[in-house]
Each structure stands twice: as structure tokens, then as C-alpha cells.
Amino acid sequence: MVQAEIIREEAFHPGMALEEAMDVAHRLLGPAGFDIATYDYSPVPLTHDGEFILPTVFSLRETPRDMEPLWCNSGYYSRDPVMEAAREVTRPFTWSHDGRQSAVMQKILSDRHAPVVEYLLDTGMRSGITVPIRGPGGSLATFSAIRLGRADDAGMEDYLPAVGHLGHILHDAVFPGFPADARRTSHVSLTPRERQCMMLCASGLTTKQIAHEIGRSVPTVTLHLTSAANKLGARNRAHALALAAHYRLLDLDA
């Protein structure tokens, strides 16, 4: 009965617009007692030194008006314990902020999360289910179904499989329609020529060989490689290649 109340695979199709898909998911969650739905996608979730990178895609249904600016502009995303937990596990998990806490959240929660927890309590967003969705190359999406009111709801765990499946169905439907910019990290931006030179360098070509390959002079290629390394904050060319690989800048489809 639980799955029948939520899962409607025929309601989604590949290339579906995110906002349409979120409307469908929100409607399907309603009969199961969930009031809010959220989705985000990060092609690269963390910097090379472990700091959070804002998602390139963010969609909310029935959240307070100030939630998106707080998460995206005021640093709440990097202090959200649910988002932090989503990076630690591969399975859907429950969370609450004034009731029983799931095992993963017990390990994650600390004083640094206090502003986010206080906001969620003040706005009544006290419990939910979050679904981590990992993709090729280390990308991460999360889908959350949130309940308003009391958090101590033992029955919410019964919905873990259904909400988990719904999150994956939604992601599989909307991901093919994401524009190229959404599939690239916003943390580092290289020009097309800088990326081309870095990719050729990563394939083992020398600066002279890259110059021949792209029809430019050796000093021009050196300029592009140096500029890319500076943008990445690299100490040398090998370090630049390692950082470019981390940020998926060497991927043809990124």
C-alpha cells in the first residue's frame, strides 16, 4: 500500500522539465503526509579540500520564501546537516529535529549546524526523508520529502523505499534535459581553449604537440595552460591536472 500511494512511474518521462516533474512528485507525496518536496543537483559536490559547492540545480515546493536565499546566498547550504549526511550514505534516510534521529544523523549533527536546525524548527520543517542519488563522475543529487509539524513519527520509516524510488525516478526523468551549464561545476570556470589545452595535456601531449594539434604557437598554449592553473589555484602543471580532474573539467560531457 505504501508504494502504491507514492510511486507512479508513468507520470514521468525522460527529458521532462524539472518544474513539471517536481509538481508531479509533490502531488504524489501529499497523500502520504508529506507537505514539502526539494531537489538539488551538484555535478561536483565538494571542492578538492572538502568545502561545499552550491548545487547548479535547485528546486523547492511549498517551502518558506526565505529558504532558497538562505541556503544559496547566506551559507545555510554548507551548514545543513541533512545535505552533509547525504554525502556520507548511499541509501535514503529519515531525519528529525525534535524527535527520534536516524543513525546517520546522530553521527553528523554538531553545534555548527545549529542555525539551520533552528530555522527548520521555527518554520515547522521538523522531519523528512532524504534520498542521495549518485551519478557518474561523482555527481550528487538529493531529493527530500518533508513533513510539517511533529517530528516523532515512527511510521515515516515505512516510506523509505517508496520515497527513495520516487527520487530516483524523478532524477532519471529530468537529468537528460539539464543544460550544459548545469552539468558543469560553478566553482571553477575555464575557457573552451583552456579546457582543450588541459585535456590534451592530460592525454600526454607536450606543449609543442598541443600547439601543433590546435594550430597555435607554443607561447599561446603555455599561456592557456598557465591561465588554467592559476584559476584552479594549482602549484604546478601536475597539480593543475589533478584539480581539473577533480572538478570534471577533463570530461568530454562536462
Shape: elongated
**Which spans have pLDDT < 50 for at least 5 consecutive residues?**
none
User: What is the CA–CA distance across the termini?
Assistant: 40 Å
Strand residue content: 5-15%
Helix proportion range: 40-55%
| Biggest β-sheet description | 5 strands, antiparallel
Q: What string, H for helix and E for strand, traces the elements in order?
A: HHEEHHEHHEEHHHHH
Mean pLDDT: 91
Radius of gyration: 21 Å
The strand order across the widest sheet is 2-1-5-4-3
Broad structural category: alpha+beta
Strand segment tally: 5
Number of helices: 11
In short:
Strands 2-1-5-4-3 form a 5-stranded antiparallel sheet, sandwiched between helices. It has helices spanning 2-6, 18-29, 67-73, 81-86, 103-108, 114-122, 160-174, 192-202, 207-214, 218-232, 237-246; strands at 36-42, 57-61, 93-96, 125-134, 140-148. It is built from 11 helices and 5 strands.
Q: How would you portray this structure in words?
A:
The chain has helices spanning 2-6, 18-29, 67-73, 81-86, 103-108, 114-122, 160-174, 192-202, 207-214, 218-232, 237-246; strands at residues 36-42, 57-61, 93-96, 125-134, 140-148. The chain is α+β, with helices and mostly antiparallel strands. The protein has a 5-stranded antiparallel β-sheet with strand order 2-1-5-4-3, sandwiched between helices.
Using brief descriptors, characterize the structure shown.
single chain, elongated, 5-stranded antiparallel beta sheet
Give the SSE map.
Elements: H1 2-6, H2 18-29, E1 36-42, E2 57-61, H3 67-73, H4 81-86, E3 93-96, H5 103-108, H6 114-122, E4 125-134, E5 140-148, H7 160-174, H8 192-202, H9 207-214, H10 218-232, H11 237-246
Antiparallel strand pairs: 1-2, 1-5, 3-4, 4-5
